TrEMBL record:
UniProt KW keywords: Transferase
Taxonomy, superkingdom: Archaea
Keyword rRNA-binding in record: no
One of the Pfam families matching this protein, by short name: Acetyltransf_7
Domain N-acetyltransferase: 1-99
Keyword rRNA-binding: no
Any one GO molecular function term: acyltransferase activity, transferring groups other than amino-acyl groups
Official protein name in the record: GNAT family N-acetyltransferase
Amino acid sequence: MAGLEVDREAVMDGEREVLVAVTDGRVLGALVLDGAYIEAVAVRPGRRGRGIGSALVVAAAARRDRLVAEFDTKLRGFYRNLGFDTERIGESRYRGELP
């Protein structure tokens, strides 16, 4: 995506790090990492499906040896497309790991 700066703004708080996707000075999305664990990925509703969340996860992967996430069934494809190995951990929950 042209003009998207994924790690232009990164905030550190101990092991916790926030990556922010910004274009033209506007925040489009953010990812919160706690060590290797992805706590949250959020993208503005009108900007979803345009690769912003994927770009945030790729940027996070460049900062860590591995990534781990827990997510609902509807996000399984998103994480699998990014290379995460996924396993069911509940009725509608999955755990994914990107080695």
